[in-house]
Each structure stands twice: as structure tokens, then as C-alpha cells.
Amino acid sequence: MPPRITTAMVVAASVISLAPAAPASASPLSTAKPKLRVCYDGSCKLTITKRVSFRVSSRFGITRLSIGFTADRVSVKGAGPGVATAGSFTKGGSATVSGIHFRLVSLSPRKAVLRLTPVR
Q1: What is the C-alpha separation between 25 and 72, in angstroms, rounded?
Q2: What is the pTM of this model?
Q3: Helix, strand or coil for residue 56?
Q4: Helices (H) and strands (E) in the chain, counts
Q5: Is the pLDDT of residue 112 over 70?
């Protein structure tokens, strides 16, 4: 090959290799991790796909909440220095644990959506 064609091919190949790769699209099965820090004050909308545990303000008399669920029930546990409290509820239900009201927005075997509201 003549030198000009070889040089042009090398330049073209290097430009192609420098092109940015297309961004990988998110899998339709992937879910965002819940932002649990926004629930610290007892006020948030929370979507969970597995049991979660997070800190809450000590003004509720507890410092940590744990929330888990099955296809038909949500369980909430609160704990703090020398205190433990718990509650559970089913579809269409709600519960108040240590001054935080939990209302079930939706529930399926794979996901629970809850609305937390402080009552104190």
C-alpha cells in the first residue's frame, strides 16, 4: 500500500478507538437503593425491596428502625438505649411505632412502598 493510504488508515483507526463508548443502559430489573437518610426525621416516602435498617432522631425515643415485609405483611421494629418496640400491619393498614406513623402505600412479594409521618 502506498504510504498515504496506510497513514490514513492508522489515523482513522486511532480516531475510532478514541470515540467514547456508548453508556450502558440500566437493566430493567435493577432498582435504586432507597435513600434512608431522608427518613431520619420520621417523614418520607420509602420504597424497599428487602429488609432495611436506619437511624432516626432520638426525639422518637428510639434511634434505629428496622422494616421488613412479606407478600402480605409489613413489620417495623424500633430500638434505642434500653428500649425496643414493634408493630406490624397488612395491606390497607397502618401502624404507629414510637411516634412515627407508617402507612402502606403498596405491597407486593418483591416491593413495599411506605409513607412515614411523625406524630410527635
Answers
A1: 33
A2: 0.70
A3: coil
A4: 1, 8
A5: yes
